[in-house]
Amino acid sequence: xxxxxxxxxxxxxxxxxxxxxxxxxxxxxxxxxxxxxxxxxxxxxxxxxxxxxxxxxxxxxxxxxxxxxxxxxxxxxxxxxxxxxxxxxxxxxxxxxxxxxxxxxxxxxxxxxxxxxxxxxxxxxxxxxxxxxxxxxxxxxxxxxxxxxxxxxxxxxxxxxxxxxxxxxxxxxxxxxxxxxxxxxxxxxxxxxxxxxxxxxxxxxxxxxxxxxxxxxxxxxxxxxxxxxxxxxxxxxxxxxxxxxxxxxxxxxxxxxxxxxxxxxxxxxxxxxxxxxxxxxxxxxxxxxxxxxxxxxxxxxxxxxxxxxxxxx
Length: 313
Description:
The chain has helices at residues 2-20, 23-44, 53-63, 71-85, 99-110, 112-116, 146-153, 159-164, 176-188, 194-213, 222-227, 231-238, 249-269, 276-308. It has 313 residues and is mainly alpha-helical.
């Protein structure tokens, strides 16, 4: 399952090199090395091997970072996320929160400037970023990420650019087409929950559509919101983490709707332009509770049905 996720990210990694330069690949290598070493230190004393999941965590975490993120900050993030998002809960399969998002949230809050201000322009033409270490930096807000541009000026980047990915933003979150194709591949391989993907989009579209139609200037049209700000990347790769997401079918729908709704609220009324990262972590918090509630409801419903049939419990 982990190898399937890794395969699905390869087009995103290649496109990120084209858009932003070879630095993103070197950053990915550095993060993966330190992620693996961190898990190795903890698993060695228990005579356990490093799981392939840490490679997935390292890749997904790196893809959420700006291209110019300092190496040391990215490394500190993966070490923190591996320890406090995974190992403190007992290691692989026991984490409550998505470790990649724990890493991202930590560096986002601790080092806000490199994570929110310093962005790079997306390359165009041939050879694009394949011919440079990193593309030119952005100096003004009018050239920043699509969500920042909308928040500051009210302008929206063209849908074509959002689909292709030649916009500034986090390393692997810019190309909507490649992310959607990756999602289709994961669903085909039965690795990621389509229920969570669809419900997240429905929750987001429902609330953002209502607010947009009622004239809330902070809320862009739903399609723009879906294609920007890392929403699709989060819905397909992060929210569907099988360990931190609910296990029941009904729970997955509730979980996804919660994430979609919370994303709209954070984007429109909080300080954060994105919101998807925190929305998923909030969803992770409610995941186990949702499952327990679903199980309790089903048990109670079965007891009532059995009583109606005259079955002694």
